[in-house]
Write a structure and sequence with these properties.
alpha/beta; seven-stranded parallel β-sheet; 12 strands; about 15% strand; globular; binds (3R)-3-hydroxy-L-norvaline
Length: about 325
């Protein structure tokens, strides 16, 4: 049985849905820090879980006979700069609890998300290579870089089949992102539909690696289903789909939303974005497990706008 920790988050919610479609609803136990009443009416089976409580995690995994864990609980880059201690604790101690329990329960596989945030200001800006990430300058990036080495350590020392992806900024309409620097690229759609304008917290020209959520979910399932012996990278795989600036995204949205107006008011998140690469080289993912993105900017904008209006959960938030 599969346990998804952080099942109410931006990635966790969609990953849970995809796993339930693939393996059957009752083979996928959703877990999050929220009370059951806040977890979403059709989100069952569900359990309230604090990944910082190692004893509770171990007991749950034993009782439910968990054989795979997807750990999506994390504090993202923007919140991480405001709550450094919490970001380090949840992102790293939460991972260590999970890795340790996975070994104790002799689990088959573990998935853990890293991020392009592991690259720092001195990494190449274009096509940043897979090679060991360089000097992240955010608490979030530091926690993800450290986590990658822990994943490789548990693979080498305990034979744990833990796999990881360095997600770019992810864009989706089914569940709101929480505390990221790339969240502008999600908020912009909701504001474009409701107000026909958006005030962007990053300045024009801020190029960032991005990916549409369907591609990110497919990449995760494809990585987890790849033969273990094919996976040469046991820190975390670079993953790439597209890169764009706020004005490029605004231009594409403007083709669908008449008179859409984009203005700029950069805040502390500009420094975070400036420390990250413009684009990522995902050569190893393409070679080791045949990764290939399907959504570019045009397709993503079209699909987002055909869904945001109707299923706009944020407008109810
Ligand atoms: C963030 N969405 O903004 C996350 C992601 C690459 C960015 O890690 O923090």
């Amino acid at each position: 049985k599969i346990l998804v920790i952080g099942a109410c988050g931006q990635i966790g919610a969609e990953l849970t849905e995809a796993l339930r479609q693939k393996y059957g609803r009752y083979q996928v136990l959703a877990a999050d820090i929220r009370d059951k009443s806040q977890a979403g009416v059709d989100n069952y089976p569900y359990v309230k879980l604090d990944v910082m409580n190692k004893a509770q995690l171990l007991m749950l995994c034993r009782e439910e006979n968990i054989t795979q864990v997807y750990l999506l609980a994390a504090v993202l880059s923007a919140t991480g700069e405001q709550e450094p201690a919490l970001a380090w604790q949840l992102n790293v101690d939460g991972l260590l609890n999970t890795l340790d329990v996975a070994v104790k329960c002799e689990m088959e596989k573990v998935f853990w998300p890293s991020s392009i945030a592991v690259f720092g200001p001195d990494a190449p800006k274009q096509h940043s290579p897979q090679a060991n990430a360089s000097s992240p300058s955010t608490v979030y990036g530091i926690s993800k870089a450290a986590g990658e080495y822990w994943c490789r350590y548990y693979h080498e020392k305990h034979g744990l089949d833990v796999r990881s992806l360095r997600y770019p900024g992810l864009i989706s309409y089914k569940s709101p992102p929480g505390g990221g620097t790339t969240d502008y690229a999600v908020d912009i759609f909701h504001k474009a539909v409701s107000d026909q304008r958006y005030l962007c917290f990053l300045k024009p020209g801020t190029m960032l690696p991005m990916m549409y959520m369907p591609d990110a979910i497919r990449a995760t399932l494809e990585l987890m289903n790849a033969p273990s012996e094919k996976l040469r990278i046991r820190t975390s795989y670079n993953l790439s789909a597209m890169s764009f600036t706020p004005e490029e995204l605004g231009q594409e949205i403007g083709k669908h939303i008449k008179d859409f107006k984009l203005d700029y008011l950069p805040d502390f998140r500009q420094q975070i974005a400036d420390s990250w690469p413009d684009s990522i080289d995902d050569y190893d993912a393409r070679v080791d497990w045949a990764w290939q993105a399907e959504f570019g900017l045009r397709e993503m904008v079209g699909d987002m706008l055909s869904n945001v209006g109707s299923k706009d959960l944020l407008s109810k938030a």
